[in-house]
Amino acid sequence: MKIKLAAVLTALSLVIAGPAFAANKAGAACPTVNKSVVVNGVTLKCTAKSGKKVWVAQPKVYGTLANPVPAGTPFKAGNWEITVTDVSDNDSEAVCQANMFNSGCTTDDDFNSIVDPKSDKRWVRIGVTVVNRGKTTDSPVMGDVGILSNGRIYWNGIFQPSTDEIIQSADLIPGGSIEGALFVNLPKNVALGSITIKTAIFSSNIYYFKKP
């Protein structure tokens, strides 16, 4: 009698517990729609498909601190598609030649524009291609540009140096693009790290790009 009672209780417990789920992997059954888990760096989302609930692998999200956008990869941020193409760690000489009034510049005895030897910063040039993916004509005025180094972001501020490569003065129609550069006035003793961009002046969203 005790054996039969134990068997009945075991059967009841299996019914109450419900179906067992296999290990979390793409295509396997999952318990709750919209629940997400991370397995070996891959995000799986529980999705209803053909009347069943299964784990579906999600595309990798780029532009974050954990997953910066790879160099040369177009990335859509708001209405702008941004591609970081190249980086020059010290472009101060070219910046000063473009305009003597740029920060960190001065003149020599012949009134030629030169890099100020007393400046403790250098201009980092970030080559970019920007495409307007919005529905109206707009100018690619980035809210801010910075460099992430040793756990700190060194922001340049909204004002870019005056050069022939500035992009914010361009009026781009939908689908229009421009090749140019963004600049960061970085302390000389700070190593070059990942690139950070805000696409709007008052935006708190920060997009991260790997340096080429």
* SSE topology string: HEEEEEHEEEEEEEE
CATH topology-level fold name of the largest domain? Immunoglobulin-like
Task: Figure out the total of helices.
Answer: 2
Which range best describes the helical content: under 10%, 10-25%, 25-40%, 40-55%, 55-70% or over 70%? 10-25%
Termini separation (Å)? 75 Å
Structural class estimated from helices and strands: mainly beta
Which regions have little confidence, pLDDT < 50, spanning 5+ residues?
8-18
The profile of the biggest β sheet is:
4 strands, antiparallel
CATH class of the largest domain, named: Mainly Beta
Secondary-structure map with pairings?
Elements: H1 2-17, E1 36-39, E2 42-49, E3 52-57, E4 75-77, E5 80-88, H2 92-98, E6 105-107, E7 113-115, E8 121-132, E9 144-149, E10 152-155, E11 177-187, E12 194-198, E13 207-209
Antiparallel strand pairs: 1-2, 2-3, 4-5, 5-8, 6-7, 8-11, 9-10, 9-12, 12-13
Outline the structure in words.
- 11% of the residues lie in helices and 36% in strands.
- Residues 8-18 have low confidence and may be disordered.
- The chain is mainly β and 212 residues long.
- The radius of gyration is 27 Å and the shape is elongated.
- The chain folds into two domains: 19-59, no CATH class; 75-209, Immunoglobulin-like (Sandwich), CATH 2.60.40.
- The relative contact order is 0.16.
- It has helices at residues 2-17, 92-98; strands spanning 36-39, 42-49, 52-57, 75-77, 80-88, 105-107, 113-115, 121-132, 144-149, 152-155, 177-187, 194-198, 207-209.
- The protein contains two helices and 13 strands, in the order H-E-E-E-E-E-H-E-E-E-E-E-E-E-E.
- The longest helix has 16 residues, at 2-17.
- The N and C termini lie far apart (75 Å).
- Strand 1 and strand 2 form a beta hairpin.
- Strands 4-5-8-11 form a four-stranded antiparallel sheet, with no helix packed on it.
